[in-house]
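Hello forum,

I keep getting stuck at the same step: I have a sequence, I want structure tokens, and every attempt I make locally crashes halfway through. Rather than fight my setup again tonight, could one of you with a working pipeline run this one for me? It's a single chain of 172 residues.
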Amino acid sequence: GAMVCRHKRGNKATFTCPFHGWTFSNGGKLLKVKDPEGAGYPESFNRDGSHDLTKVARFENYRGFLFGSLNPDVKPLTEHLGEATRIIDMIVDQSPDGLEVLRGSSTYVYDGNWKLQTENGADGYHVSATHWNYAATTSRRKESHVVDKTRAMDAGGWAKQGGGFYSFEHGH
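Reply #2:
Ran it on my machine without issues. Output:
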């Protein structure tokens, strides 16, 4: 998600969005819009709290993944996720201890339509080149004959599998 606060703890009266440069009070009220005159906003912009931050009406956790909705009248999360829970379960169940979130970040620039970038996840051809270390590690574990209880997918053979896609219900 977007980094709203650059520090993990402390007190601050305001927060500035690093993407748009808008500043909000710690209660969510929009205090300042960067360059409002040149941004092309209509006269009706930011009247009566129209652009204040909105409290998340419904918040649920599925196996450590956090989901929020501004609409309080939505289906229960597991029903909304449907079969997508199988993928989350598969990821989390790779270790008896569950997920470990590692510090740091991964940043890259995609010069194209952001909606098409997800197609990269369905392309097994790139795995052995781009993720060679992961593919090599899983292959070594499989061939070592050492008892290894780590449940991981062998990514080395993905390029040999047929292509295609699968669409989950509810737009996932």
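The chain has a mean pLDDT of 79. If your local run keeps crashing, start a new thread with the error log.
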